[in-house]
Amino acid sequence: MKTILYARVSTVDQTVEHQLTHARQAGFTIDEVIVDQGVSGVNVPLAERPEGRRLFDMLRKGDVLVVRWVDRLGRNYADVTDAVRHFIRKGVIIKTVINNLTFDGATNEPMQMAIRDAMISFMAAAAQSQAEALKIAQRAGIEHAKAQNKLRTYKGRKPSYSRAQFNSTVRMLSEDSGASDISKATGLTRQTVLRIRADPAAANDALLDWGL
User: Fold this and answer.
1) Contact 21, 88 (CB under 8 A)
2) What share of the chain is helix, strand, coil (3-state, %, to 5)?
3) Overall fold of domain 163-209
4) Burial status of residue 110 (CB atoms within 10 A of its CB: 0-12, 13-18, 19 or more)
């Protein structure tokens, strides 16, 4: 009989060493570590992962399979529940580092079996729900970033006036010059002069957006 730690490392902030250290700190003596790197727990069933597939062949009755949490086995409800029950039927003992939970076939008492299976189902459902919530949050973050990027990169129409024309217009407006007089002096249309007079700050921002 041996104790095997299965570690799934799917992101840069997860490491095998981190999961192994936690297992040892929880009191487990690990004989072997099986690792799947960069594998999604949502899209790839345990039996289809390069190393996860080995568990189905190597685990024997009385062996202990240690995982940090059930989400290391997967984040798909059906996949996780099927895998855990398969191992239990083989006589494998499954233990989690977090909360030190144990799932095995030690009992034949119907009520205890029902409680065990309900806990497995609950944990598998929680793993999938967390994954789906994370995907929704990621999509929202991506859409927000895209929207912000559009706001930063969209400059609108190029202003029909230069920096010099804008400065002259603002100066003449401060001197109470009329729109028609400013138009003649700057070469701008009367409508452009009126737009600058209505919102000089926005007119200045338009120039800045275009690097003028």
Assistant:
1) no
2) 60, 10, 30
3) Arc Repressor Mutant, subunit A (1.10.10)
4) exposed
3-state secondary structure of 177: coil
What is the distance between the alpha carbons of residues 168 and 99, in angstroms, rounded to a whole number? 73
The domain made up of 3-129 is a member of CATH 3.40.50.1390: yes
Distance of alpha carbon 21 from the chain centroid: 25
4 phi/psi in degrees, rounded to 5: -115, 130
- Three-state DSSP at 160 gives coil
Distance CA 50, CA 47 (A): 8
Burial grade of 87 (CB within 10 A; 0-12, 13-18, 19 or more): buried
Over residues 124-137, the pLDDT tens digits come to 887 777 767 766 76
What global pTM score does this model have?
A: 0.57
Question: Which tens digits make up the pLDDT trace of 45-90?
Answer: 888 888 888 899 899 999 999 998 888 888 888 888 888 989 999 9
Report the distance separating Cα 46 and Cα 79, nearest Å. 7
**So where are the chain's domains?**
3-129, 163-209
